[in-house]
Amino acid sequence: MSEQNFNEGPKFGSHPEKLLTVPENTTTRRIFIAATRMNEGKTTTSLGLFNSLKKIFPSVGYIKPIGQRFVNVDGIKVDEDSLLLNRVYDTDTPLEAMSPVAVGKNFTRNYLDYPDEFYPILRDRIIRAFDRIAYGKDAVIIEGTGHAGVGSVLDLSNAGVAKFLNAKAIIVSSGGIGRPIDEIAMNKALFDKYGVEIIGAVLNKVLPEKIEQVREYAGKGLKRHGVKLLGVVPMRSRLNAPNLQQIIEEIGGRWINGEDVGRSERIMNVVIGAMGSRSVIDYMQRGTLIIAPGDREDIIFSALAMSGLSGENAISGIILTLNLLPHPKILELISKTNIPVAITGEESYEVASKINSMTVKTQVQDTDKIPIIQDIFEESVDLKAITDCLG
User: Fold this and answer.
1) From CA 157, how far away is CA 147, in angstroms rounded?
2) What DSSP state is assigned to residue 36?
3) Helix (H) or strand (E) holding 343
4) Bridge partners for 292 per DSSP
5) For 3-237+367-390, CATH number?
6) Per-residue pLDDT reduced to its tens digit, 270-315
7) pTM score of the predicted model
């Protein structure tokens, strides 16, 4: 089987007769960002850490060796998180080096058919990509995928990659006391097996009123396992709130008005239009999404009227359900506004349920979230403890 068929991701360089087994760069500081589960906050940690390191070191790099969620950029499959870091910080490094291995469809099965042939190729590609990223850099952030063991099926677990890239690791977990301690200890065991030094742990998405309690007792518990608590990051509702475009994609909807405005609208509150229009008015404010079938023209008209009176959109969007469109005259009125409106074939409660269970990842267009992430990391995480470990 050819490599082209095996790897649907970007190609990085050629395959010389001698495959690299360790990076040629031995001097650039490097930090591997791991987590106890998927979606615990590795990318937000990487975003915050990159910003903080830039204030200390003249040049910082980023790489995500193995990625699973991709966008197509100029014909190259690039991991979403690599694209995000590249756009936010203008890393001035090739995207294909920031995202060297793309785990696409059939990737795992193809690998398992030819592991001895493809493992050295994949390892070589990651190492050469790292060397290219690290060239001229003072520090490099390496973002993993999921917990320490993710990637083991490819013989490229996070712990294994951290080892052959000679990186020290930070483990990120969502907030609490018992569960994060248990899971950090379990992940540390695999890193220990590979001989990877753990700098410490960051607890993410902690309720503000629990910050001090978590800091005290999680700190005590982690210390007993030889892990330093580097920081406790409070939950910010805006960071977990989807934009309207993400919601439209999640429910398989389509735009009928205000798409340009709606793509960046942050949805903080969802209201199902099962009440009378008089009651709905109390909820009309920016950040609110109304979900209602198109025949609830009283609710739609109330939103139009409120927007007309205030001179700006009274809400952040409307999703019409059951593929029901309002009366043509109402549609005509909608078209004269920039109120974001979309439609879906699903019923209202199903739409609300899908929104409630969404996993919200930071995207390139989320310019409102980036400063929050940067500030909260700087306020909550002990950067000196990290840099002291790097030397």
Assistant:
1) 9
2) S
3) strand 341-343
4) 320
5) 3.40.50.300
6) 988 766 555 567 667 788 999 988 888 888 888 887 776 555 677 8
7) 0.87
